[in-house]
Design a protein that fits this description.
about 100 residues; mainly alpha
Length: about 100
């Protein structure tokens, strides 16, 4: 049995719904004590009070944190992609065995 368009669409829908639900659950668990605009305002107040050397140090530190987060996000994205490809291969084998 080959993977039909309907099965492929079902798998895509299932993955999309799962990812959407997982994101929603995660987002609801996140605590936001202050709004992003307020944080940005406070950051700007602090930055203008620093010397150029201190400002550069803080900017480099923030950049390092953001880059670290981006690396982590890329890692999990790639891991999910690999898992999806393994699942697709497994489903093809199951469908072949059933036919």
């Amino acid at each position: 049995m080959k993977m039909t368009k309907e099965i492929e669409e079902f798998l895509n829908l299932a993955i999309t719904e799962h990812m959407g639900k997982a994101y929603t659950d995660w987002k609801l668990k996140q605590q936001t004590d202050t709004e992003p605009d307020k944080v940005e305002e406070e950051y700007e107040k602090v930055i203008v009070s620093l010397s150029p050397e201190q400002e550069e140090a803080i900017t480099k530190y923030c950049d390092a944190i953001f880059n670290s987060g981006a690396d982590t996000e890329e890692f999990f994205y790639r891991l999910g992609l690999k898992d999806g490809m393994k699942l697709k291969k497994c489903m093809k084998q199951i469908l072949k065995a059933l036919s």
